[in-house]
Amino acid sequence: MLNIIKQSQEHGIFTYNEMLLYAKKALAECQSISVSIQSRFPILFIDEAQDTDAFLWDLLTNTFDQNNIKSIRQGFGDVNQAIYGSLNEEDELKCFPRNSALVLEESKRFNDMIARFANTVSITESEMTGTSPLFSDREIKNSILLFDRKNHNLKNVIDTFGQLVIDTFTDREIIQYKHEGIHAIGMVHEKKEETSDAHFPKGVFDYWKEYRPLKKDNISNPKLLIGYFRNGIESFKSTKENYDQIYWIVKGLGRVINKAKKDRFITLTGNILLNIMSKLDYSQKTLFRKYLKECTDIKSFENQSDWKQILTITLNILAIFDLKPNDNVNKFLEWQESDSFVNNKTDSITKNCYTYIDDNSSREVVIEFGNIHSVKGRTHLATLVLETYYKTHNMKSILDYLCNTPPKNTNSTNAKRLKCQYVAMTRARGLVCLAIPDEFVDNQKQIKLTQLGWNIIQL
Asked: What average pLDDT does this structure show over 101-111?
């Protein structure tokens, strides 16, 4: 193992954690590095500061807090949203916020009703107010959907939410906020085994049997390069993450290079961009980055003239590797009409979308399913938070908080559940709903929830 690590480092390949360790060592041995960095960057702004771990905080402190050096370090974040991939992960944040931090109590995403709901699961003492004037012209029924979990067919939960969306928003509004979407989310979403009666509903998959976790590596590869580019564009539209677009582009370009080389020259798993870069010298890397940037700048391929720009860039990339297109490459670079692509593609970029149609009006809404972590930082038109199970049912374990009657002490596991719930309940700008088994919510709790402003719907 040590030999493998040594060989990878000799080739200039380091893990993220290795780079942090080297940075710590360099700062400890050469204090002038701190002086130099602060001279170049007198102001450090840390966004999403609640997700910065203790090691990195120490590294930043050692870099920007040396004596007699003037620099400003400003962190911005929300400790209520410090959530990670698992309830088992350590997420206690001691470095942020600092004492006497400035608290921004207004949210312009949603109205004050949603803010009051979210405040019940906040782990901080300060309360948020919602100041958005959107949809203030109507009475929105933010609802808790109580269902019988003995009935393993939960389609009525999703359909009831769909009907609430139709009753709340006009078609024009649904189209206007289509890029934000209507979402059904839960904390558990990967199915590892069949759900037992005691654990039901265990995950998002128990509400909609067609749900599949979105994993790029499990998506079938397009037959043509243009399919990779279109996948990248659709992924970017869905997630607003450049990484997702770049992933598809470099995977397609890697196939072009391999076809021209007639060999598996580029490994098309793991970090494909790094795999390509490892084959290039410094000047070639700079040129490749330039061409890759040009590829990401083109956001649609409506006709062949758009695609010809990519063909020119692709040939330039092949030239970096001293390669020329052969018959296999030329076939892979062929143009394909957009409609043909949509009909033939087998990727799952949009497969986790369920369409609800109102029988009376024939109006319809598309509901996108996912997990809570996948929507962090995003805004929805409407959100349905689904009860799921990890060691115990999630909302059942924090129901006293949702009723605004929290216990005196909060254990670490429930603190993490509260953070996940807070993230889930603060995505929607218009309508937020919860789906909870009715056996968890007795009459007394229903009264408390109603007093808070929730609309209770017994399915």
From this structure: 86
